[in-house]
Structures are given as structure tokens and as C-alpha cells.
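Homework help board

Subject: predicted structure for assignment chain

Our instructor gave us this sequence and asked us to write out the predicted structure in C-alpha cell form, then describe one feature. I got the C-alpha cells but I'm not sure how to describe them. Can anyone check?
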Amino acid sequence: MSEHTGFCPVYRAIGVLQEKWVLHIVRALLDGEKGFNELARAVGGCNSATLTQRLEHLEQLELINKRTEDSHGKLARSVYTLTPAGRELQSVIDAIDGWAKTHLNAPVTPTGPVTAAEPTPC
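My C-alpha cell output:
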């Protein structure tokens, strides 16, 4: 493949989406809005600093919105939602899901293959 000399939308999109945790964050938010801690649990395994960095970047790209809720004397709660552009990534997630179901075998654990009904770490 030759070197990119001009703007290539596919190259740019892959650059954004390949950042660790980005698609996990999007996938978690496709289920609806989440507070920071709830999102951290849904993503699983991402440290707070990295999650904060990814969320800020996704907000700059206008893929997510952040709003702050007053918690009546407690620390303010940050709540994240996908923008319409972020929700359009559903088709990307669906395409990855379809490809994976066709081309990847289910992981095998000591108790046998993992089934679709079992939760997967994301």
C-alpha cells in the first residue's frame, strides 16, 4: 500500500477507532447514557485516566456529549451520551459483530466454549 499524501477518510476513521477502548466506550453508550463510574464498569479494565482521556477526545470529535448533573451537595456527576454521529457507529459495531460470528471461533475456557448468553469482557 502506498503512503497517504492527502486526506483519506478511511485512514482517519481507522486512526480514531483503533485507539484502545474507543469502540468499547461507543458500544457501552449504545445502550444509553451512562455516568463515568457506570461507563467505567461497562467498559471494564480501562483505568480512570485513560477513560477520561478517551472521553475528552470523543467529545472533541463530537461523537459523545457530556453533561454535568448537580448532585445536591455531593460531587457533580458527569453523564455521557452518544451524539447522532456517535450513534451512527452502531452499523460499524454490527459489521464487526457479523464478521466475528462468521470468522472467529468462540473462545474455549476450562469449562468449555463461551456461549453468546455469557457476558464477555469489553
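Reply (TA_rk): Your C-alpha cells look well-formed. For the description, you could write something like this. The chain has a mean pLDDT of 86. That's the kind of observation they're looking for.
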